[in-house]
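Inverse folding, one chain.
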């Protein structure tokens, strides 16, 4: 609910705040929350040198880069549609892992990937887009790039052996994203001289404290108690909530193509996740090998 409802909230905030400053407020606020939680639980520690390249990769690409891409796209694409396109991260992970980690593609993975990409094509509606409006194509492209960047860093994480826990690493990732983002925002947009209305203050607090800081911490706690497959299957509710909340709060139309695209993406992701669970549970390779 927190992550899904955040899509229309982000879109509302971006009417006042520039994309880069929104990214700064989100990661900086989250850093405060996560460091506070880590300090209270005694989990704050300086990361060893071995983990620094991974932390830098996640800070620059998964946090700073993805947030700027998504926030820029949200000025061009409705939030409900955006939430679905960004959710295709799990689909792009499959071919990237096959290329860089040697994970083989089998029948179910091809099926899931095909269904998901079909859903993306439906969401794009290339037959109905106003291609003479550059913002339409650019916005969708930025969202796809954000999803692929997320997928690439996920594969990077999968191939790395951590010497610290995720909760111990997250504060440094957030700080590593906040510093370059702040410098970039100051250079490109200047100081954050926005009209700080009560609504805008609430939006900024929601971004940092709830949508990033608390959500990051909650997902780590959940992953310690539930399987990764169960967690990710449950999180497929995020784009559903994103579409519905955008319709309720911002009046975004839930068109037939949006509904079909959402369904295809969710089914495609579910097929891939359930395929991984089958392999993990049986300890055997599916036909074609994994």
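Residues assigned per position:
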């Amino acid at each position: 609910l927190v992550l899904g409802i955040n899509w229309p909230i982000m879109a509302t905030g971006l009417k006042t705040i520039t994309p880069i400053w929104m990214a700064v407020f989100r990661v900086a606020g989250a850093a405060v929350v996560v460091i506070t939680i880590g300090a209270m639980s005694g989990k704050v520690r300086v990361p060893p040198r071995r983990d620094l390249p991974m932390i830098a990769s996640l800070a620059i690409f998964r946090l700073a880069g993805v947030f700027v891409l998504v926030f820029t796209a949200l000025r061009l694409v409705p939030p409900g549609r955006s939430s679905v396109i960004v959710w295709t991260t799990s689909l792009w992970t499959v071919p990237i892992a096959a290329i860089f980690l040697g994970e083989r593609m089998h029948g179910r993975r091809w099926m899931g990937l095909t269904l998901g990409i079909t859903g993306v094509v439906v969401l794009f509606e290339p037959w109905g887009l106003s291609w003479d409006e550059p913002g339409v194509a650019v916005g969708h492209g930025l969202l796809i790039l954000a999803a692929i960047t997320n997928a690439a860093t996920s594969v990077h994480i999968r191939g790395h052996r951590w010497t610290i826990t995720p909760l111990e690493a997250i504060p440094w990732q957030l700080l590593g994203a906040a510093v370059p983002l702040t410098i970039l925002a100051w250079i490109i947009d200047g100081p954050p001289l926005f009209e700080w209305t009560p609504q805008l203050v609430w939006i900024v607090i929601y971004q940092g404290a709830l949508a990033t800081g608390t959500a990051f911490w909650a997902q780590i706690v959940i992953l310690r108690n539930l399987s990764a497959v169960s967690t990710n299957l449950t999180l497929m509710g995020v784009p559903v909530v994103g579409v519905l909340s955008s319709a309720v709060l911002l009046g975004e139309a839930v068109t037939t193509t949006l509904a079909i695209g959402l369904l295809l993406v969710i089914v495609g992701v579910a097929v891939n996740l359930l395929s991984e669970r089958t392999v993990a549970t049986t300890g055997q390779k599916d036909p074609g090998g994994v």
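Residues 284-290 have pLDDT under 50 and may be disordered. The chain has twelve helices and no strands.
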